[in-house]
Amino acid sequence: MSVSDVVVLHENGRDTAHFCDSIGFVEMPQFLNPEPALTATVENAVTMETSGLEMEQHFGTWHSIDSREIGGRDYFLMEHDEFGDEAACVIVDSSGKLAAQDVMDVFSPEVVAMIAQEALLDKMSAEQDAFRESLISLSAPEVLERSYEYNIREDILLEWKNGNWTAVTPRRC
User: Fold this and answer.
1) Is 117 helix (H, G, I), strand (E, B) or coil?
2) pLDDT digits (tens, 9 = 90+) for 35-61
3) For residues 9 and 18, is the Cβ–Cβ distance under 8 A?
């Protein structure tokens, strides 16, 4: 078990849910009968005024307590509506997409660096997808001419996705 896990117990014909906190367990009756909550959409972007945000794989609802621009995008530190600072926070982007979890009340340098690396990887992946699409419109000789560049870019992305954040040495075929 780890912090933020939820355990459901069945005793004497009754179910109860308990949140695993850093110091013990907290009963959560609303886990078994949740109320409808706000879910971020394009029309309903996350801001500093956001509260009642529901996220996949995270129990309950959340509200913004801090924000930071990282890599040209806005990210929001979210605190649990019910448990407040007794539970770990999460960080989401302005669309509500989870960027980090189990965060302790602050945009630490380590968390900011991790989010920046993920944002760069997302940007690189999108650029590679666009590059791949552009190859479709080219003639066969032009595709062959650009295939080395395509493969180098794929190698770099693969190394980044595997967590090897160091420079990649190009290889010739």
Assistant:
1) helix
2) 545 555 545 589 999 989 888 778 889
3) yes
